[in-house]
Amino acid sequence: MVGEGAVIRLVCGLADAGLMLVRQGTVDPSLSEYCLLVRGTSCWDLKRCGLSVSELESYAGDVEVRTVWHQLAENETALLIDVRTHAEWSYVGVPTFEDPNREVLLVEWVSYPSMQGSGDFAERLEAELAKRSIDKKAALYFLCRSGVRSRHAAMVMTPRWDGPCYNVEAGFEGDLDEAQHRATRNGWKQAGLPWRQF
Length: 198
Description:
alpha/beta
C-alpha cells in the first residue's frame, strides 16, 4: 500500500484514477516519466510545510472557473494571469473584473503564428510581477484557451513562487462540443463571467 505523499514512477498514461499526476522536474511534453502523489498532498502543500520538493514540483491544482471567480473576489491579492497569445486576446477577448482598477495580467506562453515559446516565460512573468510589487505569497491563477498551456505555466512557476499556482480548469473558451465549437460546454465565457474585446 502506498502511503500518503509517497512518490512512485510510471510510464505516461498509466495513472491510477485515485492518484494525482504531476510531472517530475520539467514540463517538457516529450518526456514520458511522471511521478504520482496520493491525492490530497500537492507539492505546494509540501512546500508550505517546509519540506523539500526540489526533485518534485507540481502546482496547486485545477480550479473550476466559477470557483476561481469567487476566490479572486474574496482575495484581492490573488492575480489572474492570461497566458494565451496576443492574437487570442485580440480576436477572442480577455477576462475582466467588475472592479475597473483590478488588472488581468497578460503574458504569452507561446507566440502566434509559430506557437513556439521563447523559453523565458518565467522571467518575463516575474518581471511583470515585480513591476507591480506583487507579494510573492500571493495566489496566482493561470488561464489559457482550454487549460493546457496554463497548467504548464502553473507548473513552471511553482518552484519559483512562494504562493500557490493554480490552473483555471477549461480556460477561457473551454472544450470543443460535438459541433467542434468552443465556449458552449465549459470555460470562462460559457459560465457568463465578465470579459471584453481587447
